[in-house]
Amino acid sequence: MKIAVEGCCHGELDKIYAAMKHLERAEGIVIDLLICCGDFQAIRNVDDVECMSVPNKYKELGTFHSYYSGAKVAPYPTLFIGGNHEASNYLWELYHGGYVAPNVYYMGHAGVINFGDLRVGGL
User: Fold this and answer.
1) Could you tell me if 85 and 53 are in contact, meaning their C-beta atoms sit under 8 angstroms apart?
2) Closest CA to 48 of 85, 95, 12
3) Of the candidates 9, 28, 46, 72, which lies 20 to 30 Å from 52 by C-alpha distance?
């Protein structure tokens, strides 16, 4: 199983998925899973932008909203934990975790899930 691990996502899913596709072509591999380790920024709309705990100059919509609305579907199963720069109003609704968009799963405040034979925990 090939797993890509991303540090802070900062709402740039399109760039991350493009980089993964490039890596697959360049290395001749298939990536099975993306794990994002914080500051995912699952921002659905401009109201969520206002709930972000960041300086105003960093308040941007990002690309997650396209996945949330269904306009795009994540090309890889994606797991993430929250960080200190989130729209906490949305993630609080999923305190114990859950899908935030098709193929994109929030691990919750603390959680453990199975992905194939892999057990993944997030805090």
Assistant:
1) yes
2) 85
3) 72
Closest CA to 42 of 3, 4, 79: 79
Class of residue 86 by CB neighbours under 10 A (exposed 0-12, middle 13-18, buried 19+): buried
Q: Residue 11, Cβ neighbours under 10 Å: how many?
A: 25
pLDDT digit string (tens) for 43-97? 999 999 988 888 888 889 999 999 999 999 999 999 999 888 888 888 889 999 9
pTM: 0.92
How many C-beta atoms lie closer than 10 Å to residue 6's C-beta?
20
Kindly state the helix (H) or strand (E) to which residue 114 belongs, with its residue range.
strand 111-115
What strand order describes the sheet that includes 78-81?
Answer: 3-6, 33-37, 78-81, 104-106, 98-101
CB 79 within 8 A of CB 36: yes
